[in-house]
Design goal:
Number of helices: 10
Mean pLDDT: 87
Distance between the termini: 51 Å
Low-confidence stretches: 172-179
Number of domains: 2
Strand order of the largest sheet: 4-5-6-7-8
Largest sheet: 5 strands, antiparallel
Structural class: alpha/beta
Number of strands: 12
Radius of gyration: 20 Å
Length: 343
């Protein structure tokens, strides 16, 4: 059992925030300390220690534990079921024997659930409106225009739905209709399509909006739909010889507006950390990593760490890192302040 647990922890290292998000926890809870607790609901008592191994966390009300314990307590599964769930997410083998037969059954159920989730998200995408086919007065275009992005050629990886349900648990964290969740409301939403290294659909990112194009009044207006932990990216514009990588969707769009270069969003800082070199298509010779200048320096650190990995694994690529000069800003702030740049 100890070897099994260690195998899970080793595979999950660096991916715990995405694993937590995949079971319904808000990814924002793991970006800094003194956040709301996903277990007890305390507003500022939970801290996740990203630099420690095993997914360590501490809550002044719930105590402490590792990533496996947090997933088990949040999902209210038995310990073995939690191990099976994590092995399934991480693509690890499930033990054989009598216990293994039970666990393989759980794996099969999870795969069915994952396929159902993927099919539902794919169907939602097909019903949504491409941005190039809708009026500029719709909430999604008002949202983009407010960020200086109204003149862009619409990305084919972004769409709009007039009404999408948003679920919230009592302590304010959004999850997709899980137990004890309540319907907060239905809002207009911008959808973004995440694909894997082969270009296959994984899931959707959603930004909930109001009629005037502001972010919806919910705890987390931006969230990923439920799905497996994979190296997904939003390929906002087709790759050429150069591809720019940025965290958020609006940041990547801003990089495209600033430079005219193809830009992709990795969704978040954890997405930057898990971006794999296999995602870069043949023909790309240059990668520009456009990180955020967070006051915590986490965005810049993630950008330089990715650059180091790419240089080691793909030495034929020209890789550079670009960070806004002012602390606490990202590339959308630069766009709004200065306009066109040359990287």
């Amino acid at each position: 059992m100890r070897e099994r647990i260690d195998r899970i922890k080793n595979a999950a290292e660096g991916h715990w925030p995405e694993i937590f998000a995949s079971v319904g926890m808000d990814a924002a809870l793991f970006q800094r300390q003194n956040r709301p607790c996903p277990l007890c609901g305390g507003r500022d008592r939970f801290s996740f220690f990203a630099k420690e191994v095993g997914g360590r966390w501490y809550c002044r009300g719930c105590g402490m534990g590792d990533g496996i314990k947090l997933v088990q307590q949040f999902t209210k599964k038995e310990f073995v079921q939690t191990l099976v769930h994590l092995e399934t997410l991480l693509g690890l083998p499930v033990p054989k024997g009598k216990q293994g037969r039970y666990e393989r059954s759980a794996v099969a159920r999870h795969k069915l659930w994952a396929e159902k989730q993927r099919a539902e998200q794919s169907a939602l995408w097909e019903k949504a409106f491409p941005l190039g086919e809708i009026d500029r007065q719709t909430p999604v275009w008002r949202y983009l225009c407010a960020r200086g992005l109204g003149d862009l050629v619409p990305s084919r990886e972004l769409r709009f739905v007039k009404k999408l349900a948003c679920w919230e648990v009592p302590d304010g964290q959004n999850i997709d209709g899980a137990a004890k969740a309540r319907l907060v409301g239905e809002f207009p939403a911008m959808l973004a399509r995440l694909t894997n290294a082969e270009g296959k659909f994984i899931t959707l990112h959603r930004t909930y909006l109001t009629a005037d194009g502001s972010k919806a009044p919910v705890h987390s207006a931006k969230k990923l739909a439920a799905g497996a932990v994979e190296n997904g990216v939003i390929r906002l514009y087709p790759a050429g010889g150069v591809v720019c990588l940025a965290e958020g969707i609006e940041t990547a769009l801003s990089v495209h507006a600033l430079t005219g270069l193809p830009a992709w969003s990795v969704v978040s800082l954890p997405g930057m950390k898990r971006f794999g070199p296999e995602t870069i298509p043949d023909g790309v010779r240059t990668i520009r990593i456009c990180g955020d200048n967070d006051r915590s320096y986490a965005g810049a650190a993630g950008a330089y760490e990715l650059a180091s990995r790419l240089r080691r694994s793909r030495p034929e690529l020209e890789v550079s890192v670009h960070i806004p000069q002012a602390a606490g800003t990202d590339w959308n702030d630069v766009l709004l302040a200065h306009g066109m740049l040359k990287l």
